[in-house]
Amino acid sequence: MKRTDFHPLADANRKVLHDAGVFTVHVVGPSGSGKSMLIEAALKRLPQFHTAVIYNTPSPSCVDAPSPASPSERHIPIVGASIHAGDVRDVLPKLDFATLDLLIIESTTSTASPASEDLGEDLRLGVLSVVAGDDKARQHTQLVSTCDALVLTKTDLLPHVRFDLERFRADVRRLNPEAELLYVSSLREKEVDRWVDWLGKTAEKAWTSRTCWTTCQGGCADDAPSPPEMFVG
Ligand SMILES: Nc1nc2c(ncn2[C@@H]2O[C@H](COP(=O)(O)OP(=O)(O)O)[C@@H](O)[C@H]2O)c(=O)[nH]1
Ligand SMILES: [Mg+2]
């Protein structure tokens, strides 16, 4: 990660999670951008990973959560408009680290809370949808500039909305030249497969490099090529 917004509480979370061998993904974007559907696909298609999900919900009765494909005790709601590093610290004791590989934190950005705070994740995945318009990258500058990868969702709707893909792509590249850009329709099997495959490989690569770091103290070369953009299929 090349971010500069590291937070002491988030660093403490990261250490707890690393010590437990957990890979943590922070999925962040506006409400309705398709975060839960991306997460649901990962839960269903990566059964080999023991996964827990932390998500924010405006009220205890609101069920704006990914469908639990894993036991419901692995779905932890945090009531509030957004999630902060202290919230994650407070719920970490609820997780059974002995049986956990992957932690996904779904958090919502809003105009009231536009920041994408460091929560202690390994990977920050920004999510924007084509329905919201091709100007959204330049409106969510902090989200775009701090993410490791950005998913543009609902690509099946491209023929029906005014969305200049090149304009969006240029904005993303200007704000964050290194972020990986993924184009996904959660309604298209092939694109969902590619997204889940990418997530699984990214987690596995992180676990391998952690093992490598432990055994060779970082002396080995990171010669993995940058992954390509994944274009609309
Ligand atoms: N057409 C289309 N609809 C989608 C897609 N992904 C999500 N949706 C719909 O968009 C709405 C919001 O999705 P959700 O995953 O709950 O968004 P979240 O609020 O970001 O978690 C739901 O009605 C989904 O069915 C997609 O790729 N294509
Ligand atoms: Mg959701």
Q: For this structure, what is the CATH homologous superfamily? A: P-loop containing nucleotide triphosphate hydrolases
In round numbers, the mean pLDDT is: 86
Helix content: 25-40%
Alpha-beta content class: alpha/beta
Would you write up a description of this structure?
The protein has 233 residues and is α/β, with parallel strands linked by helices. It has a single domain, classed as Rossmann fold. The protein contains seven helices and seven strands, in the order αβαββαββααβαβα. Helix 6 links the parallel strand 6 and strand 7. Helix 1 packs parallel to helix 3 and helix 2 crosses helix 7. It is globular, with a radius of gyration of 17 Å. About 4% of the residues have low confidence. It binds guanosine-5'-diphosphate and magnesium ion. The site of magnesium ion (MG) has 4 residues, from helix 2. The site of guanosine-5'-diphosphate (GDP) has 15 residues, from helix 2.
Brief account:
By secondary structure, this protein is an alpha/beta fold.
Kindly list the characteristics that best describe this protein:
Rossmann fold, 7 strands, seven-stranded parallel beta sheet, 19% strand, alpha/beta, 34% helix, 233 residues, binds guanosine-5'-diphosphate
Helix-strand blueprint:
Layout: H1 8-19, E1 23-30, H2 35-45, E2 51-57, E3 75-79, H3 85-91, E4 102-109, E5 123-129, H4 136-139, H5 141-146, E6 149-153, H6 165-175, E7 180-184, H7 189-216
Parallel strand pairs: 1-4, 1-5, 2-3, 2-4, 5-6, 6-7
Helix pairs in contact: 1-3, 2-7
